[in-house]
Amino acid sequence: MARADWEAVIGLEIHVQLATATKLFSAAPVSFGDEPNENIDPVTLGLPGALPVVNARAVELAVRLGLAMGCEIDRASRFARKHYFYPDLPKGYQISQFEEPICRGGVVVCDVDGVEKRFRLTRIHLEEDAGKNVHEGGRSLVDLNRAGTALCEVVGEPELRSPADAVAYMKELHQIVVALGVCDGNMEQGNFRCDANVSVRRRGETRLGTRTEIKNVNSFRFVGRALEYEIDRQIALVESGGAVVQETRGWDDEKGVTRSQRGKEDAQDYRYFPDPDLMELTLDEAFVERVRSELPELPRARRDRFVRDFGLTPYDADVLTQSAARAAYFEAVATATGDGKTAANWVINEVLGALNKAGLDVESSPVSAAALADLLGLLGKGTLSSKMAKDCFLAMYQDGVAPAAWVAKNGGQITDTGAIEAVVREVLDKNPEQVQELLSGKDKVLGFFVGQIMKATRGKANPQQVNEILAREVESRR
């Protein structure tokens, strides 16, 4: 199989669970982890006479996402019934948007292997989620707690050409929805998940091949692996004289394969028609402009600003903008100290390093941004050496010690030239043989002397001054 002779065509449909307290068309609560079938009501169950009412907050969040993605916001949109029959869909149809979605167009801008790429969106529409089928002990059970939960489906154009494109696209969108407060982004709970449509064609061809859909993938790594496998499977199938079947497939990560689940329907199979129980959804200009005025700075803009204003590398800026809380923490430290590079180094290596080991987020950091800024101020003034600052940070993290209190107890860095000179001379006088070795050109002995001097000063002597004074004193004994 010569994969270089083939081209993949990938389009993603990403389901974003909106951060609403209640469902899209009813007052039933949205809460993860509750007992099965606890968060239901007549609308969720599709009981006769139960009428849906649109959740205003869901509409606002959909507009918020659409504006952030550069979509055209339709001032008039409509809900439709999408018919398909599953145990977790009590009505026998899903309320979604089809011909008249709330958002059209838009673009996802992301970096793929250091190259900026722009992938167009087809639409963003509102729809309700289905429930969940649970298979255990030889039985199939249905939990309708999720049924009716508000979703935005972000539908992309089939412009992605590699699994790397898909992963970068998905990660960028994930950061955006979290930064907007549209979704909590919890992929383990299925609040941000992806359907990946993929086909293959020989390079140079323009006609699309038959596509398959990989359903409900809730991990960036899984998406990449599933697409890699499916692309290779389709190429091998076609090269062996077979034909790709339009179908929905599931990803089995344990075995590293996709598996057929069912034939994939086309739009006409769903028998869409406007939902007669819901009026046209109309938005006035004031509402849209109010939502626009409340948009926060988006992750990509923040990354660019951190590189420009704080002198960070693109990698560091990316790490520090993975969440709004992380970015705010770093920016508070950098602004207080006036040294973005040092702030970034300490936040990434010390703060995030300690938090990652404990499985915590920056919101749970026992060291506040103000406290870290105080520590870095002492480091910048020379009150603390780099090693002393790390020891101080450990005490701050573990015991809540303030930097000033740590210095008061342990003392600061020795920067007095006379005091360091006295220690250097004493160490040289005690080790005449090593002095002669150093004078004869054995530079490795230098480390021995530095170690002895730092030991004598309990690690408090300024390392730069130690090296300068040591070199001068040794030379004077030549």
Tally of discrete structural domains: 3
The fraction of residues in strands falls at: 15-25%
Helix content: 40-55%
Would you tell me the structural class of the helices and strands?
Answer: alpha+beta
Shape: elongated
E-strand count: 17
Give the low-confidence spans: none
Query: How would you characterize the largest beta sheet?
Result: 10 strands, mixed
What value does the Rg take, in angstroms? 30 Å
Average pLDDT: 90
Describe, in plain words, how this protein is organized in 3D.
Strands 1, 2, 6, 7, 8, 11, 12, 13, 14 and 15 form a 10-stranded mixed sheet that branches. Strands 5-4-16 form a 3-stranded antiparallel sheet, with no helix packed on it. It has a two-stranded antiparallel ribbon with strand order 3-17. The mean pLDDT is 90. Helices cover 42% and strands 20% of the residues. It has 16 helices and 17 strands. It has 3 domains: 287 residues, no CATH class; 114 residues, no CATH class; 60 residues, Orthogonal Bundle (Arc Repressor Mutant, subunit A).
Secondary-structure blueprint:
Layout: E1 6-17, H1 42-45, H2 56-68, E2 72-73, E3 76-77, E4 80-83, E5 93-96, E6 103-104, E7 107-112, E8 115-128, E9 132-136, E10 139-143, E11 150-156, H3 163-180, E12 192-202, E13 212-217, H4 220-239, E14 247-252, E15 257-263, E16 273-274, E17 281-282, H5 285-293, H6 299-310, H7 314-320, H8 324-337, H9 340-358, H10 369-381, H11 386-399, H12 403-410, H13 417-430, H14 432-439, H15 445-456, H16 463-476
Parallel strand pairs: 13-14
Antiparallel strand pairs: 1-11, 1-12, 2-6, 3-17, 4-5, 4-16, 6-8, 7-8, 8-11, 9-10, 12-13, 14-15
Helix pairs in contact: 3-4, 6-7, 6-8, 7-9, 8-9, 8-10, 10-11, 13-15, 13-16, 15-16
